[in-house]
Specification:
Dna-directed Rna Polymerase Ii 140kd Polypeptide, Chain: B, domain 3; alpha+beta; 5-stranded mixed β-sheet; 15 helices; about 475 residues; ribonucleoside binding; RNA_pol_Rpb2_2_sf
Length: about 475
Amino acid sequence: SVTLHYLKSGECRVRLIIRRQEFFIPATLLLFALKDTTAKEIFQSIVRGDSTNHWVSSRTEAMLRQHSLKTRNDVLTYLGGLFRHVFGNTVPKSLSDKQLCFRMMDQHLFVHVDKKSPTRNVDKFEVLILMIRKLYALAKGDIQPENPDALSSHEILLPGHMFLMVIKEKLQEFVFGLGGMILREQRMGRLMAFDDSYIKKLLAMHPKVGDRVSYLITTGNLVSNTGLDLMQTSGFTIVADKLNYFRYLSHFRSVHRGQFFTEMKTTSVRKLLPESWGFLCPVHTPDGSPCGLLNHLAAPCQILPNPPNFNQTQFKRLLRDAGMIPKEMGINLGHRYCSVCLDGVVVGYVDPENITALADTIRGFKISGKLPKHTEITPIKDMKDRVFPGLYLSTTPARLTRPVYNLQARNNNKSSNGLEEKKAKTMEEENDEDDDEERKDMDEIHNDNDAGIEWISPMEQCFLNIACVPDDYRE
């Protein structure tokens, strides 16, 4: 996790957690390390031409004046020297301070950015600039803090993702441990020829990776040097009760907030918020201590296990064709323009007057099959609701999604085979009186080829007009 802190002096500090240790790095140093830039460019990127906003401009100027390092090479060397003792023997001693800083940023700063992208450091620069602008808006009082207990702020930690993180860490420990044993044998003069018997002897001296994973599955206890950025180290496995088939199957649709929250005395984490409608069952939660923490997915709700097989370059091309301004022109735009974020990366900008039209065009691409069907599209036009504006798009896995009817697309499909670029309105049809009709609707919803079906996420649901029953629909 990357956390941005605002200080009373107006400076911003980035908090990184590396091997269970917290490090607070001035945001300006990371900006200089990520991109070969100048203080003037950073100032213009944050202020965005808003000369009347002295609150932001004065703090940005003060933040840039607090540090004497102004070149990228000096900052990279400085940060790399500070973090050398943190990595220890996990990095080669021949690695320079500059190279070590690049490795630190690749492994611990905005890891969601594609490491194979040649512009990954520039993308991280844009993300950090956006975070600073949002933090200043929060400190000034223009927006309200996001609710960490809201379902729109959550993703699901799937078992496969958990096992993958554990196996990756244990393999790294195995390789580092094996390398350390070879170096120790060499220093003591006992290094022999690398035949099969000698290799097997070295491998037998190190714990097996499979045993570590088996221990996690058997006991539910996590033994990790890094903590894997999780808030608990136990309680990762449960025993599935077999009282009846429905009780047994319900375990595989359950979602637990985490053992850490069971000891909290506040009840805010247990509340069922309105945006959970359609994603979590409002009644299927046990009594007692796990009440509100152990929930179950609603019947039509699905969790994305894998990222879609879709080229993001094609996605960006569709966005530009639909009216998005490329991010290369962002520094020349005014402060009123909203950022367009795709999977947590700034890809462009859009005029707030056109943000709704752009979102509707993308929604049409999504329903017609030109974009992944589980794409999250959340347009926020302005700060009227005290929410930071922007167009937020997401195709990442581990998100909750549910199907609804997009009435505009459904009606257009019945009259013609094309989709009109108009405001999309959605509606969910539920009929509890007739079981046959309900079963028919569910079969239609799960049919991917059915026109008018759109998959939405909790955050997306907050900004859509969704009818629960037909009487709620309004033109």
